[in-house]
Amino acid sequence: MIALGGSIGTGLFIASGSAIHTAGPGGAIVGYTIMGIMVYFLMTSLGEMATFLPVSGSFATYCTRFVDPALGFSMGWIYWFNWALTVAVDSTTAGIVMNFWFPHVPSWIFSLVVLIYIITVNALAVSAFGEAEYWLAIIKVLTVVLFLIVGLCVIVGIMGGQAIGFHNLTYKQAPFVGGAPTILSVFLVAGFSFQGTELVGITAGESATPSKSIPKAIHSTFWRILLFYILAIFVIACVLPYTSKNLLGSSVKDITISPFTLVFRRAGLAFAASAMNAVILTAVISAANSGMYASTRMIYSMAHEGQAWKIFGRTDKRGIPIYGLMASTLVASLTFLTGIFGPGIYEFLIDSSGLAGFLTWMGMAVAHLRFRRAYQAQGYDINDLRYRASFYPVGPILAVILCAVVVIGQNPTAILEGQWQQIILTYLSVPLLLVLWLYYRLRYHTHLIPLKDVNLHGGQLKHNKVI
């Protein structure tokens, strides 16, 4: 359910509209499908490692043990910072969403309420986080299911008057608009939409039966993406022509032109805007909740690997990494800078947090390639693995290539035109990752771990040594 909640958010409810407008219905479906397949491969890679060695904050630990401690150190800190910033972004977004109903109340007040709620849930037992995510995910899933039913009724004419049919799928330049470049731009939107599915691996260390629950969650990922994203985009593209200016303007700042809202209105549901605003508020709170959990567990895991201060590895009597939670809360408090310096800080937070997800996905794929090679180099039989990734090594190799393409393609215009401010905002995570990697490697003289020396079984690894 955590993985389910992590894959449904504003990327589906809002950004899918701009993808259809940019690349047409066919381009949007192809882009989301390819990215969805890549995410499925990534999840199977993570699943193979997580069922073999279930730990909290998993993939940074895997980079440390299977590749190079410097890579694990840099990936872990980037991922922690990314999710802590995401809490700030989502808390700010919640304030913007609440202004739909209360336009005269300062948005930072609502952001504060949401942040306090997130901190409270994560400060309680792990079961409190799981329970909150379960019900938030249920709301999102039911909304998507209702949308698909209503959308299909509109297409065949049961609701909204005359049947629309499939005319809009081939309207003007549809189904494919702009060719390969526009499909590449959909990769960016789809990738951001799917970020969060890796949380199934982050939670492995606290799962009662990781060898059973993780593979089950991973296998449902592909079908979930197929159902919720591909069918939703198909319905939107049938009901609304790709030339609709409302699709281009889809934004959390104007929920009335969310593609979901437009389809519900087309069906004659007058309450659509308020209902979708409530659902999107739920999605934003869910994302913030997951972000706080992921960042807290990541810094906790790094402390146990000797890559963060020991204090972050301590827990309270309920097993909560309370000091890690406090560190993540400190970064999340950047939320309130938007109330001081204006909306420019909000855009900066979004740009700063976006790219890190793709970088960590690349690290995850590299770790899996190294894990499998080390496993075989040390004489183990892959048939003994509790769970084996699908289509190895094609899956992780494809993931590395696609993630690299997406990273490079974040803002090519800024690079070609020498817009340094935009380049810094867009690609900030890349030099930060390199600086962290170089610092750790030079200080502790780490190196790429030989396959036969890779630590496959337990023990705390610190600076290339098992202690």
UniProtKB/TrEMBL annotation:
Membrane topology reported for the UniProt record: Multi-pass membrane protein
Listed InterPro entries: AA-permease/SLC12A_dom, Amino_acid_permease_CS, APC_YAT
Protein name: Amino acid permease-associated protein
GO molecular function: amino acid transmembrane transporter activity
UniProt xrefs under Gene3D superfamilies: Amino acid/polyamine transporter I
UniProt KW Transmembrane keyword: yes
Gene Ontology cellular component terms for the protein in this record: membrane
TM helices/strands, residue ranges: 29-56, 77-102, 108-129, 141-164, 176-194, 222-243, 263-288, 320-342, 348-369, 390-408, 420-440
